[in-house]
Design a protein that fits this description.
alpha+beta, 2 domains, four-stranded antiparallel beta sheet, 13 helices, globular, binds S-adenosylmethionine
Length: 468
């Protein structure tokens, strides 16, 4: 959903590596990284080395203006869209704006399930493409299935029934973290690097499942990536189908799958939005105002993400006004072990063992400090609670936990300070200015929480120490 700013474009004659090279290797997931080699990725090594031009069977379609495309979309179905709003291009691509003053609680949009793009529609359409479970490397989930469906619909061009919708989609999606160039890895915070890993792994996973079909239909990576991004930046949760072919897999219950909602998905995101949305019976979409809104204002919903790092991962944008976001400070095992050694005076091996055992019980890398400065780390709690003297009371334990966490965030402050200096001081090629802004916004958002939590946690620690 971000404005298209280009990441490296994959060309057939560039040196190429396997798709896996885009996924950082395990040792690279450690925080505070060293510079990585510059690398370009390429889907099909044979076509890279032989410099073969892949035959494109995409239709070229007469380009319409934004206004014409929006009009086609509005005429496509009998939408229940309030006359008090308009769709137009704004600061964040297309968006929805108030034409008149709006009151709190007004319904602005309603779409019954049949006007949304449901997974059942995608499965049905793909049954002629996927005839056997062996046509895919692994069963497809909802996002994979919708991506493949959208890809083929895009190829049909204006012969697709969905064309009035698809024609409004942005042309390129190149900046989300799944296309973050390797030479810029060092400019990411440790958390952003983790999110990059997740974003890339999800994308590559999807590509690999579909590889045979993509190759059969000569789908270039860029083409697949666009369809995939259209889906993942617009997908809203919806129920999984009751019956489906063997090549499809998803959760069984409510909200375990997803759908696309034309018009609904033109609302842009704010952490504190002025509109609210609801998925009703069978996947119907409803949009209402959450406050009174003056004419001319843009209408926003929340996509359910509050952190710059998560917005970057899923939607390809970040807020530069970092007071708007609610970033977390993610903690990692190595840092916790350092805090254990420094604060408790224990041997590294012992700290390692305690932390590793605690980590085995949790799914995450070590936990986090949330934007309210609450410590959400089982590992940190375990480490600082471990092997306490018998006369140790709850106040002393809590104080020790805060001191341990403070050690971590002082270090993180130093790291973020250095990182921001490096970002500022580096020589950025013009094509990467968007990346610079994104890396800065992610680091600054975390820095704000670090500064706030330092003061707050000092006070907490002192209070508990006094009562111990
Ligand atoms: C569901 S679409 C919204 C419609 C989109 N603006 C369009 O032109 O089609 C989500 C995408 O919109 C953009 N977007 C939404 N909210 C934004 C924001 N607050 N700042 C920057 N971009 C935003 C991002 O590109 C995001 O991936």
């Amino acid at each position: 959903m971000s404005e298209p700013i280009l990441a490296p474009i994959i060309k057939a004659d560039e040196p190429c590596f396997s798709l896996d090279s885009r996924i950082p290797q395990p040792e690279e997931t450690q925080p505070l990284l060293k510079h990585k080699n510059i690398s370009k990725t390429c889907i099909n090594p044979e076509t890279c080395t032989d410099n073969i031009e892949i035959k494109s069977i995409k239709k070229s379609i007469e380009e319409k203006t934004d206004e014409e495309k929006i009009q086609d979309l509005l005429n496509w179905k009998k939408w229940e869209l309030s006359e008090k709003v308009e769709i137009r291009r704004g600061n964040y691509g297309l968006g929805v704006f108030a034409k008149e003053d709006l009151e709190k609680g007004e319904t602005l949009f309603f779409a019954p399930p049949e006007q949304t793009i449901m997974i059942t529609m995608a499965i049905e359409a793909l049954e002629s493409v996927i005839t056997d479970v062996d046509d895919v490397n692994e069963p497809l989930d909802c996002a994979d299935t919708l991506s493949l469906f959208i890809l083929f619909e895009l190829r049909k061009g204006d012969e697709s029934e969905l064309w009035p919708y698809l024609a409004t989609m942005q042309k390129e999606y190149t900046t989300p973290l799944d296309y973050w160039p390797m030479e810029l890895h060092d400019f990411l915070t440790p958390a952003a690097f983790d999110f990059l890993y997740l974003a890339t792994a999800d994308y590559v996973d999807s590509y690999k499942k579909l590889q045979k079909i993509l190759e059969k239909y000569n789908v270039e990576e860029e083409e697949f990536h666009r369809a995939y991004s259209i889906v993942t930046t617009r997908y809203y949760y919806n129920d999984a189908p009751e019956n489906h072919p063997d090549w499809f897999i998803s959760g069984l219950g409510e909200g375990d799958c997803g759908a696309l909602g034309p018009i609904f998905d033109l609302w842009n995101h704010e952490v504190k939005p002025n509109c609210d949305w609801e998925v009703g019976e069978g996947g119907a979409m409803k949009m209402t105002t959450d406050e009174s809104i003056a004419a001319g204002q843009e209408l926003f919903i929340s996509y359910g993400v509050d952190e710059n790092v998560r917005m970057a991962q899923t939607y390809g944008f970040t807020f530069s006004d970092v007071s708007k976001v609610e970033e977390n400070i993610y903690l990692y095992k190595d840092e916790i072990v350092d805090a254990c050694v420094a604060r408790l005076g224990k041997a590294r091996e012992e700290c390692e063992e305690i932390a590793s055992n605690a980590l085995k019980q949790t799914g995450d890398e070590g936990g986090h400090i949330d934007f309210n400065c609450g410590i959400e780390s089982f590992v940190l709690e375990t480490v600082f609670d471990h092997d306490n003297p018998e006369d140790d009371d709850e106040n002393a334990k809590t104080a020790r936990l805060y001191r341990g966490a403070l050690f971590l965030i002082y270090r993180r402050r130093e790291h973020l300070g250095n990182l921001l200096e490096e970002i500022e001081g580096a020589n950025w090629d013009e094509q990467f200015l968007y990346h610079k802004e994104m890396a800065t916004n992610i680091a600054r958002a975390e820095q704000v929480v670090v500064e706030k939590c330092m003061k707050q946690m000092e006070n907490f620690a002192l209070g508990f120490e006094r009562n111990a």
